[in-house]
Design goal:
- The chain contains 5 helices and 15 strands.
- It is α+β, with helices and mostly antiparallel strands and 260 residues long.
- The chain has a single domain, classed as Creatine Amidinohydrolase.
- It has a 5-stranded antiparallel β-sheet with strand order 8-7-9-14-15.
- Helix 3 packs antiparallel against helix 4.
- Bound molecules: 2-amino-4-trifluoromethylsulfanyl-butyric acid (MF3) and cobalt (II) ion.
- The site of 2-amino-4-trifluoromethylsulfanyl-butyric acid has 13 residues, from strand 4.
- Cobalt (II) ion binds next to loops.
Length: 260
């Protein structure tokens, strides 16, 4: 069931999505060699709670964190832990915030210190593919148009697209219909309509697309242990226009010329 939002709903979505964007900006201040992923989680949780939000991942289906901590080969759903970040790592921090009954969802993959040119290119391409998906997300087009835009962009550059995990609708719940895959055919899938709120979140691998879920039942990593990158925005389609409700500007402000 796809829930279409009113303009009042979207105003509240905006609030939640601004808060999650600011939270990623706080995390950006701390990402560095020597910092644990649990520290990043604590920073996020305290910032969200201090600003009238609720960390929506915490306790969701038993998930133990405010953020998903996605280090190197971890694709999604990694647990924050006492793992200490090292120079050359990448870490995706995926976070969902509830505010005033609505959800905001965003993910950013950070470089820890200097990273290799190959890994940098993976991150840049993944982020660019997110914006290709957003460009294709227009009222009157179909979900498959978004999916195809992401897939063709990444595969043309030699990367592979994770199939098992998708973007999604979002609103009062973190995950609503429709699913928004990162692979597919143009002109297929549900019609994109005014009132939809969607999360687009390419999960792109340097090696093969295959993933495994670890014994904790959550942590999803590449089977070949090559790195994976992940970026996510929440969008609203209203009055024939697509608006990005999240922003990486808070991260950019913190990172300056280290912004990917
Ligand atoms: N933020 C992730 C997504 O984009 C999922 C949240 S992880 C969970 O859908 F722990 F909350 F499940
Ligand atoms: Co999401």
């Amino acid at each position: 069931m796809i829930y279409l939002k009113t303009s009042e709903d979207i105003e509240r979505m905006r609030e939640a999505n601004t808060l999650v964007s600011r939270t990623l900006g706080e995390i950006a201040k701390w990402v560095a060699p020597g910092v644990t992923t649990l520290k990043l989680d604590t920073i996020a949780r305290e910032f969200i709670c201090d600003n009238g939000g609720r960390p929506a991942c915490l306790g969701y289906g038993g998930f133990p964190g405010t953020i998903c901590a996605e280090v190197n080969e971890v694709v999604v759903h990694g647990f924050p832990s006492n793992y200490t970040l090292r120079e050359g790592d990448i870490i995706g921090t995926d976070c969902v915030v509830e505010k005033d009954g609505f959800m905001g969802d965003s993910c950013y993959t950070f470089a820890v210190g200097e990273i290799s040119p190959e890994v940098m290119k993976l991150c840049v391409t993944t982020k660019e593919s997110l914006y290709k998906g957003i460009e294709a997300c227009q009222e009157g087009k179909r979900i498959g148009d978004i999916a195809n835009a992401v897939q063709t962009y990444c595969e043309a550059r030699g990367y592979s697209v994770v199939r098992e995990m998708c973007g999604h609708g979002i609103g009062k719940s973190m995950h609503e219909d429709p699913e928004v895959p990162n692979y597919g055919r143009r002109g297929t899938g549900p019609l994109i309509k005014n009132g939809m709120c969607l999360c687009i979140e390419p999960m792109i691998n340097m090696g093969s697309r295959n993933v495994i879920i670890e014994a904790d039942g959550w942590t999803c990593r590449t089977r070949d242990r090559k790195p994976s990158a992940h970026y996510e925005h929440t969008l609203a389609i209203m009055n024939g226009k697509t608006e990005i409700l999240t922003t990486f500007d808070y991260i950019k402000e913190v990172l300056g010329d280290r912004f990917i």
